[in-house]
User: What shape does this take?
Amino acid sequence: MNTKPIYIIGSVALLLIVLIIAGGNLTTNREEQTTDMQRSSFYSKDKKAGGAYAAFKMLPQLFYSNSIQVVTKPFARTYEKEAQLKYSGNAYILVANELFTTEKDVDAMLEYAAVGNELFIAVNMPDPYLAKQLKFAVVESSNLQQKKESLVQYYKDEAVPVDTNFSYPGMISGNYFSGTDSSTTTVLGSNYKNKPNFIRISYSRGYIYLLLNPYTFTNYFVLHQRNVKALETQLSYLQYGAGNVYWDDFYSSQHSAQSGDFSEWQVLMRYPSMRWALWLGVALLLLYVLFESKRRQRIIPDKPAFNNTSLEFVDAIGQLYYQQHNNYNLAHKMILHLLEYIRNRYYLNTNILNEEFVAALSRKSAIPETDIRQLLQMMHHVQLEENISDDYLKEFYKRIQLFYLNTK
Assistant: This one.
């Protein structure tokens, strides 16, 4: 077999990978050392001047919650998949240069707020459909990269007991609100022109916060002198004890209007390094097909696959225990299998099945706490009783199967 084409393809691929990594490292080093914020990413893992790494790392200190969850999909899709968003007491933070959404996303945001949740949006320019639904208008002004320190944000809520003027030598956002519904809107802050750029809109049982200065979340701003107080001030309006806190990393990478149909490919194609990797993979695949399209040997007949008898074995064991009428032993083994499943899937300690365990399992599996408590009570009953009736065993089996089927 002639292996020369394979060596050629491998050498070319290795050279391309080295060039991409070297070029990416040089670019990253240059960007990390500059304070230019013209192309701020507002990304939670970006440590450059225009990234939001510092603000994201501050969130656990500002909210009494179990964890900060990062969202990488459109709001409508997240709202559909994440059951906790349909209950009250959650906080959702979205920071981006410009908010490009679909009508479906906006409708989901409003439905999320209506049930008693809080949505914090910090963007230079909101989505027009969102503005129409919430009855506000925005005047566009220029965003400037200043060379000296000056005032960029002011909070005018007298209830906040801190010095509310904040400045830094970075990007200035000039947009402001020109019209709002006074019956539902409260002005909380203004920009360097003393024009309102931070408002709170009461929507049914919840609140929507709109800040036309996303640069207050950037590393350069937050880490400058005492400006961490600004982050604390604007997020202090959200519930400190929010049940779940979400940070959106999807819209910060959107630079044009969405088509309305989201696919997993959009996530992959957002990042330059991932795009390079995908196109390189396609090129290597085409080269491989080109050089290896000629068949070198006869087709080897398929070998029949072995039958998987593991399920039949489990069923046979279950039937054996059931026929022997050893309900306690069978129920005990069902409990052991369930606890092993929880440990492997959700990485939870099953030694102590208390209320903290119930809350953690409910959050990770999206199963209501009441259902989990009922299941644990049945497990406790099985462990205490030596004689388990057939009806109780069937009900216990049904409860466990429902847990398996409904977990996410």
Observations:
- The chain has two domains: 34-270, 310-406.
- The longest helix spans residues 4-33.
- The chain has a mean pLDDT of 83.
